[in-house]
Amino acid sequence: MTLSAMPGLPVRKARKARGPVRLVLERLGFLIAAMFGVVTLSFLLVSVTPGDPARLIAGPMASNSQVEAISQELGLDKPIVERYVDYMGGLLRGDLGESYYSKRPVTTEIFEKLPATLELIILAVLFAAVVGIAFGAIAAYFRGRAPDWISRLFTGVFQAIPDFFLGLLLIYVVFFLLGWAPAPAGQIGFTESTPPKVTGFIPIDALIAGDPALAGSALQHLVLPVLTLGLVYAAYFAKTARATLGRALHSQQVFFARAMGLPERTVLRYALVESRTTIVTYAGVIFASLLGGEAIVERVFAWDGLGAWALQGILRLDVPVVQGMVLIAGAITLITYTLLDIVVGLLDPRIKHA
Fold first, then answer.
1. Quick one: angle between helices 319-347 and 306-316, nearest 10?
2. How far apart are CA 236 and CA 289, in angstroms?
3. SS3 of 166, please?
């Protein structure tokens, strides 16, 4: 007789494990609720910041009546509740307002700037993941020996260097001294024209337009900013990979694989599979953090991306631009974390069925 069948003992039903569909639906429900919080927070944070955009637009020599006229034109004289209702109504229509300076829709400017930032971040994260995991794996496998010391030196040096300073250093060495890279003049050279916009990614659009030379130039201009961000964050990947792979190499699965006489390449593959959840999670976190954290690097390389555009909006107190940046950064971050949560839940059954 089983314990559950014994008289006098309460019968406890086993908790039903969550399947993939329920997991996805739960995360999507959380995403919708969190997006409302991001929208409200982006409006409040920008609206209550000190400074008068109307005064800044009018200039130091403007009279009070001129400043008041600009404030009325921009709707800054309305109560904050009314401005919030207008903001939410416009957001539901896909309208984030117009820039105070360019007089262009913020939504249009976001879609123009976003591809440049995404190509930079995606390539930087891929480079950082490949280099960082390689250094971390070598350090974990040769723990306490010379390769481990070299990897830890690499990690320590590049963790300590600010990304913008590394960018300036690379410009001086690689461009100015060695001449191996083009001038940090943006996505293409001074004398080159952007191809007709199809995807927004200049290398791809140049290939579509049948201009491989322009595509090659765009890729060359990507090298230094990608190296700048990639080397800094490769150090973080290396530190994480060393710790996770080190634990995996001492797990029971690896001991059993070695006891069975499997080749070391297979053993390392098992260790990578054991630690993949942590590495995938870290990649998603870095991608989300880079979305708003590479603005200074974009300015250093004259990169016409979302970060440089938002930084200019902050300096000008261009409220719709700043709100648009906070909103798009928060939305992409939430989407990234939601997808990451789903992927990790699908990769690790212990998480998926918890």
1. 140
2. 13
3. helix
